[in-house]
Amino acid sequence: MSWYPDDKTWLKVRKAQWKEVKESLKEMRFYTPQDVKLIKEYFLYGPDKEPLRTVNNYGEVRCKVLHVGMITVWLHPSFERSYIVEELDKYEAGTRNSNDRVKDYYNGGERLLQLCDLDYETHKSATDDGDTSFFQGKEQLLAELLLPASVEDESWFKNSLRDEDRLKAKCERSFRMAINRLSSYFSKHMENPNPNFIYRYRLSYCISALKHFKGSEFEAQPLKENLVTFFAAIDKFTASPDKYPQCFVETAQEFTRLFNEADLPDSVHALLAPYIKAAKEGAA
């Protein structure tokens, strides 16, 4: 059990943390006051007091609040993956892939991306003078447990294999979303970047979209422009890591590692070559 409500010190800390959680719930705007009351009980006292679900005589589970998967991962006291997965399975067992990721945006994944989409900078904490993020540092676990690791895990992927144009469009969109957000993160938020920005944890997904992209050119002009910005930033952070925020440097290093290990088709390397070249020439 990860909740210790009988421990006065633990509960005091948890009540202080609730201030942050309440602010984020308020910003979401889709939880009612009754929902927030239930979520608070779960947060402070755990599923023994408020399980956020009911089970009928046929064993069917009914969730009491929206996006209960997101709530469970976010508000679980532990960062230990196995404990959180055990709790998730109480809501809908057997929905997970072998790597414990939840299939098809189960219970909050898509909403998670919407909420974190522009969360580029840190937030001022509601409890002290420090900084925080929308999900109080749980973004990586939320991404790992609620979002597909690869485009191959998407419900649309298999249905697109026989339709090359559809597959191309879907993969470009997936790649574009990550690159557009990361290029903005790198270029506009140098002073106070959010180290828990959700797209930092979407790099393998981004690379998988590239791997399955079948085309000689991208369609979206903003993507073309942002690719130059992105690769210029990657080169800059890699060359002079001491000059830039650690989260930028780590993201650049991880993207480079995944990119080099991905065994991407020659067609993809040829596609990206002009943007990589333009990035280097712009920095010269």
Number of domains: 2
pLDDT averaged over residues: 90
Strand order of the largest sheet: 1-2
Shape: globular
Class derived from helix and strand content: mainly alpha
User: Roughly what fraction of the amino acids lie in strands?
Assistant: under 5%
Give the tally of β-strands: 4
Radius of gyration: 21 Å
Detail the poorly predicted runs. Answer: 102-106
Order of H and E elements: HHEEHHHEEHHHHHHH
End-to-end C-alpha gap: 56 Å
Largest pleated sheet: 2 strands, antiparallel
Give the number of helices: 12
* Helix content estimate: 55-70%
Question: Mind explaining what this structure looks like?
Answer:
Helices cover 57% and strands 4% of the residues. The termini are far apart. It has a two-stranded antiparallel ribbon. The protein has helices spanning 8-28, 33-45, 68-75, 81-92, 109-116, 139-146, 155-160, 164-188, 203-211, 221-239, 246-261, 266-283; strands at residues 53-55, 61-63, 123-124, 131-132. It has 284 residues and is mainly alpha-helical.
Show the helix and strand layout.
Elements: H1 8-28, H2 33-45, E1 53-55, E2 61-63, H3 68-75, H4 81-92, H5 109-116, E3 123-124, E4 131-132, H6 139-146, H7 155-160, H8 164-188, H9 203-211, H10 221-239, H11 246-261, H12 266-283
Antiparallel strand pairs: 1-2, 3-4
Helix pairs in contact: 1-2, 3-4, 3-6, 8-9, 8-10, 10-11, 10-12
